[in-house]
Amino acid sequence: MPSGPPRRCLPARTSSRCTRSSSTSSGRREEGRGMALRTARQYRESLRDGRVVFYRGQQVPDVTEHPVIRVAIEHASIDYEMAERPETRDLAVVKCPETGEPISRYFQVPRTAEDLLTRSALIEAATREGGTLVVLIKEIGTDALFALQIVADQMDKALGTRYGERVARFYCHCRDNDLAMAVAQTDVKGDRSLTPAAQAHPDYYLRIVEERQDGIVVRGAKVHTSVSPNANEIIVLPTRALTEQDAPYAVAFAIPANAKGLRLLASSHGVPRSRPFESPLSTAHKMVETLTVFEDVFVPHERVFLKGEWRYAGP
To answer: Which of the listed CATH numbers 1.10.443.10, 3.50.50.60, 2.40.110.10, 3.40.190.10 matches domain 6-312?
Structure first.
């Protein structure tokens, strides 16, 4: 990412460097460029980025036009629409203490009990608008970012790593571009009585297969990745505690949803939109999850938040 004036983005012992700039007219994100808030329309347009998504065996050329996935996109748009409407803006938007700009409240780092209660109220309000289906497009990703910063700071203090700076910079990138995020955590696992390294197939858990001077290459799959077909970024986390032999499986990182080698196989359940009378909620609100396949995906170092530190992979 381009460097800029130092600005603390998360409550970490390390500071971050973020760059402020105007966005493109379509609202597409660019690393290091900021816009603070996007409209629902800009969010939807940002999903036309060449991502590889399959639905019932057929590749989807444009997720915004797919009859099932577009319902999930419209549902996820609730988080953006609430920031636009006067009656919900005060709940959905907050002034960023670092930049002075309005940002989605989901990106506000909770520092007090009141912060947590207000965040909970926002999630509840969005869920009501979603017909009792949680929206999740910002909720789960910001949860992951806050947790990553805590673990990164612990590693930096104990091991002398610099993961805290990386997490803080990525947080700024997501916050200042108002990005939609998915979290890929659950591996396919195989025999659950065995550790990842002891599995019959090495790719039952996502792992590092190559380390390069500028990053890592990962291979494997995650399952039940909610909202990934309509997210901008996918945050990847380990799914369990690991042993020393499992070190290649101790990996956390973030990649754009259109990263080379990433395949999103969407769940095919759902009611056709042509049946609103029989299924009024499920035809209007939907969340699509995926089998998220990593076919030797390259991740640059600045987006890697855990690389082999197996003691920090789980509880």
So the answer is: 2.40.110.10
